[in-house]
Design goal:
HAD-SF_hydro_IIA; hydrolase; EC 3.-.-.-; hydrolase activity; alpha/beta; 12 helices
């Protein structure tokens, strides 16, 4: 029985899972278009409106509208609405689309700390610089409540990992001594909202970051599927604490069609693994064995240890071949 057949919706991260820099990752469009279950896109990126995200998805060949999108900007505005009254002044650090969403929620959007906003809401945008960060810091020091759309320290771009919203939030937090309330992943709220949109009872959360996508899906008591196409690689998975361990691991979204027994941690691909003191020894394999098969074999042993293994020791030609490429 395949992973897809056991779930009634896909809750999909975007950056590093569906696309990279707006370009679709290999096989992703075909997988989503033929999976037979609804897909909701759950993104910590607050720099684009739901309408803009939907347009980008349709441009790469997917069927989507704004109702299929849940952004951290939407989530943090809902959170702020529980703390401050409708019509209150808010200072937005981030994109124009974030400001538009705030206006649609009934807030009065200002750009200066001198306007005495009731709250500062910070989301990612490439235009964010010293001036916006400073206005936000001044407002927070004057008593404004502080909210952040998400705390991702990095985000995948075509050339590697760029600076994420969490890194910019850290600058304001350092300047003010105030820790923001975050609405984005790994908080479970976005996952609950996404599942509710399609009436899902058995959703599968899919993502590339264990500290946001996987922790968030786990916190929402949903099954989680980690893809090795983005931020968190093999070594981070091996060292993952219990709350950050996915139910399933795939090289990419195309492996959603594999049987559940194959994508769970456990021996496969002719590999075997065992604990040797503080290390894990990986043996066996064959010419057709894959890196992700070796990883799943190692994870069953590594996750059974009281502390993460010190080293993964490859003890065969095929084990050495795959482990040398792990990151």
């Amino acid at each position: 029985m395949s992973v897809l057949s056991k779930h009634d919706a896909l809750l999909l991260d975007l950056d590093g899972t569906v696309w990279e820099g707006g370009r679709p990752l290999s096989n992703v469009v075909d997988v989503i278009n033929t999976c037979g279950v609804p897909a909701v896109y759950v993104t910590n990126n607050a720099s684009r409106s739901p309408e803009a995200v939907a347009t980008m998805l349709t441009d790469i060949g997917l069927t989507a509208d704004s109702g299929d999108i849940v952004t951290s900007a939407q989530a943090v505005l809902q959170l702020a609405a529980e703390e401050i009254p409708s019509g209150a002044k808010v200072l937005i650090i981030g994109a124009d689309s974030f400001r538009d969403l705030a206006k649609d929620m009934g807030f009065s959007v200002v750009s200066s700390a001198d306007d005495k906003p009731a709250a500062v809401l910070q989301g990612f945008d490439k235009s964010v610089g010293w001036e916006q960060l400073t206005e936000g810091a001044l407002a927070i020091r004057a008593g404004a409540k502080y909210f952040a759309s998400n705390l991702d320290t990095s985000l995948p771009i075509e050339r590697g990992l760029g600076v994420g919203n969490g890194s910019l939030v850290a600058a304001v937090q350092k300047a003010t001594g105030v820790e923001p309330v975050s609405a984005g992943k790994p908080e479970p709220a976005m996952f609950f909202l996404a599942a509710k949109k399609v009436g899902s009872k058995k959703p599968l959360a899919v993502g590339d970051r264990i500290d946001t996508d996987i922790v968030g899906g786990n916190a929402a008591a949903m099954n989680t599927f980690h893809v090795l196409t983005g931020v968190s690689g093999e070594l981070e998975l091996i060292e993952a604490p219990v709350e950050a361990r996915p139910n399933f691991i795939g090289a990419g979204m195309h492996e959603l069609s594999l049987p559940i027994s194959q994508v769970r941690p456990g021996p496969q691909g002719d590999f075997t693994a065992r604990c040797d003191g503080y290390d894990v020894l990986l043996q066996g394999g064959n010419e057709s064995s894959t890196s992700v098969q070796a990883l799943r074999t190692v994870l069953e042993v590594a996750w059974s240890m009281p502390v993460p293994p010190r080293y993964i020791q490859p003890r065969s030609e095929f084990a050495e071949k795959v482990v040398s490429k792990w990151r």
